[in-house]
Every structure is written in structure tokens, then in C-alpha cells.
Amino acid sequence: MLKLYDYPDCPFCQKVRVVLAEKDLEYEKIFVDLRRQEQKTPEFLRLNPYGKVPVLIDEDEVIYDSTIINEYLEDEYPLPHLLPEDSQGRARARVLEDYCDNSFIPPTTTLLAQIRKVEAERDGQRVEQARDELRRSLYYLRDKLNGEDFLVGREFSLADAAFAPRIMVLGRLGFELEPALAPVQAWIERLRTRPSVRGLGL
Ligand SMILES: N[C@@H](CCC(=O)N[C@@H](CS)C(=O)NCC(=O)O)C(=O)O
Question: Mind listing the pLDDT tens digit for each residue in 44-96?
Fold first, then answer.
């Protein structure tokens, strides 16, 4: 059976869990306690030299990095397809997934960390900067949606899976979507109806 080394709140683990659920794959979840630095033990570093979750094991194959794991799942368990058939559509999905990991998830992580602090200890400048970045991302997503149901067309893809974990907690980050972002709001509602996303329990 597939094994996933996982941490519940990690958005990278969550995006892999969304894809496992979309493909209806059974797997064993192995909890790695990041607060206790279990990801830096010699045993774990043998699996992933970066010392990060998620890690997926399929038979004897050890795969790390959420994007590479999701690509592997798409290659090895192709149904239902989570990438378009044409090269251009596949490239668009990959570009957006990469954008998500590098530009969308980081400001949400900053905001979640700041919100957990008591108000007096919050770094107002970091909060403002993260909120600006996030707002810019949401307008970028609106343009990418371009009237379609999902990020790369009519079908849910690996790109949507990447955004789902953190797009679902915008409200918790104190983010109200203004009317101009209605297409993004509609996409969020569409994502919310999927069992794979609901299964995250966010
Ligand atoms: N690029 C990696 C990022 C994974 C990542 O940053 N995981 C975090 C948890 S959300 C982690 O394991 N951090 C532990 C550490 O850096 O010590 C991926 O997509 O899988």
C-alpha cells in the first residue's frame, strides 16, 4: 500500500492528500511530528535529504516534494486524469502549481503564523506585505480562471489541488474577497463541493 509521511497542517501534504483522494487511492498515513523535529532524524533524512514532508513511498520507490509526488501519482495512477491532454494545457497547470508553491502559499503561511501571535507581538509590516502579495495573487488567479470553472479549463487539475488547501482558509486569514474577485469566489465554492477538498476538514 502507498505510504504518506504527513503533517496535518502542512499545505504541501494537503495538496498530495487531495490528489490521493481524487484518484481514490488507499494509503497509510504516517505522522511526522514537525514540532519535535522528527523530520530531521537520520531515519527521515534517509528518505528525504531536505528533511521535509510530504514523502510518498510506493513499493520501494521513495518520492519527495509535493509537486513531484503529484506528478508521479498522475503518471502511475492516471485515472481520473488531473492534467489536460495537450502540452500547452499541461504546461499551464505546471506553471500555476509552481506559482502556488512559491508565491501563494508563502504569504498565507506568514499570515497564519502572525494571526497565532498575540496582537502586541504581530509584525504589522510583514502582515501588510503578505496581504498585498496575497491580494495580487488573487487577481492573477481571476485572470487565469478567465471565465472557466477551474484553473486550466473545465476540469479540476493538479493546479487546483495545489491551491485548494490555503484558498479554503482565506476567511480565517481575515481575507474578504471584494466584488471584483467574484470569479475567484465562485471557483472556491466549486472546490469546496469536492469530497477530496472537504476531506481536508478545513
Ligand atoms: N517543496 C516542498 C516543501 C515542503 C515543506 O516545506 N514542508 C514543510 C512543512 S509544510 C516542512 O516539512 N518543514 C520542515 C522543515 O523545514 O524543517 C514540497 O512541495 O513538498
Answer: 999 999 999 999 999 999 999 999 999 999 999 999 999 999 999 999 999 99
Distance 196 CA to ligand 1 centre (A): 21
Question: Does domain 2-76 match CATH 3.40.30.10?
Answer: yes
At the topology level, CATH places domain 87-198 in Glutathione S-transferase Yfyf (Class Pi); Chain A, domain 2 (1.20.1050)
Atom of ligand 1 nearest to the CA of 10: 10
Testing ligand 1's pocket by substitution, the residue of 31, 35, 38, 52 carrying the most ligand atoms inside 8 A of its CB is 52
Q: How far is the CA of 60 from the centre of ligand 1 (A)?
A: 22
Three-state secondary structure of the chain: CEEEEECCCCHHHHHHHHHHHHCCCCEEEEECCHHHCHHHCHHHHHHCCCCCCCEEEECCEEEECHHHHHHHHHHHCCCCCCCCCCHHHHHHHHHHHHHHHHHHHHHHHHHHHHHHCCHHHCCHHHHHHHHHHHHHHHHHHHHHHCCCCECCECCCCHHHHHHHHHHCCCCCCCCCCCHHHHHHHHHHHHHHCCHHHHCCCC
**Residue nearest atom 13 of ligand 1, based on CA coordinates:** 52
Q: What pLDDT sits at residue 174?
A: 85
Using a 6 Å cutoff on CB, does residue 39 contact ligand 1? Answer: yes
Look at the pTM and tell me if it is higher than 0.85: yes
62 CB less than 6 Å from ligand 1?
no
Domain range summary for the chain, segments of one domain joined by +: 2-76, 87-198
Q: How would residue 175 be classed by pLDDT, with cut points 50, 70 and 90?
A: confident
